[in-house]
Every structure is written in structure tokens, then in C-alpha cells.
Amino acid sequence: QVQLVESGGGLVQAGGSLRLSCTASGISISVNGMAWYRQNPGKRRELVAGIRSGGSTYYVDSVKGRFTISRDNAKNTVYLQMNSLKPEDTAVYYCHTASYDSWGQGTQVTVSS
């Protein structure tokens, strides 16, 4: 059974930083692509960043240069380092693996202006 558990969300002022973590069980993140999505009420879930099994990364244009996705294979954990946060980054952030189409429970990120 695949389980993804996110943590690290919170309230931060604009310009601040947060680091989200997604710890996986039931799969090995080193051989599975992983991604972070975000969603606000009434809006579609949006892909934010992803890391392929080979280690290459990709980002939505709005976060390029501010967010960094990485992974620690030994801890089976994927991270999303978020810098220079903006109020429009406010959302619930979810971890996802397409290989099993599994989602975490989400972690709230709120950026105040």
C-alpha cells in the first residue's frame, strides 16, 4: 500500500521561505517520479514541480527560480524548498506519484502580504 505524508506547511510572510516534505512508504522514490501539486478552493489542482526517476526536474513557470524540488533516497523523502514566497502561492500542497496515482493528505501553505 502506497502512502504519502506531507509536512512543513504553515503561515509565512511574503518574501519568506518554507520547506515541504513528503515521506513515502510502499514505494521507492528513487525509481518513481514524484511531484508537488497545489490547490485552492474552487480551483483545479495545479502541478507545481516534479522530479523524474532519473533525477531531472521541472517546474511551472510561476515558481521557476523560487522553488526547488529535491529528494533524499535514503529517507525516501521528497522536498519542496519554497523561497521568495508570494501571497498567490497560498494553497494546499499535495505530494503525488503518477506510477500509483497516489496522493498525500495535503499541507496548508498561507503567505500573508
What does it look like?
- By secondary structure, the protein is mostly beta strands.
- Helices cover 0% and strands 52% of the residues.
- The chain has no helices and 11 strands.
- Strands 2, 4, 5, 6, 9, 10 and 11 form a 7-stranded mixed β-sheet that branches.
- Strand 4 and strand 5 (46-51) form a beta hairpin.
- The radius of gyration is 13 Å and the shape is globular.
Helix share, percent: under 10%
Strand content bin: over 45%
Identify the overall geometry: globular
Low-confidence stretches: none
Span of the ends, CA to CA: 40 Å
Key descriptive features of the protein:
single chain; 113 residues; 52% strand
Produce the secondary structure layout.
Elements: E1 3-7, E2 10-13, E3 18-25, E4 34-39, E5 46-51, E6 57-59, E7 67-72, E8 77-82, E9 91-97, E10 102-103, E11 107-112
Parallel strand pairs: 2-11
Antiparallel strand pairs: 1-3, 3-8, 4-5, 4-9, 5-6, 7-8, 9-10, 9-11
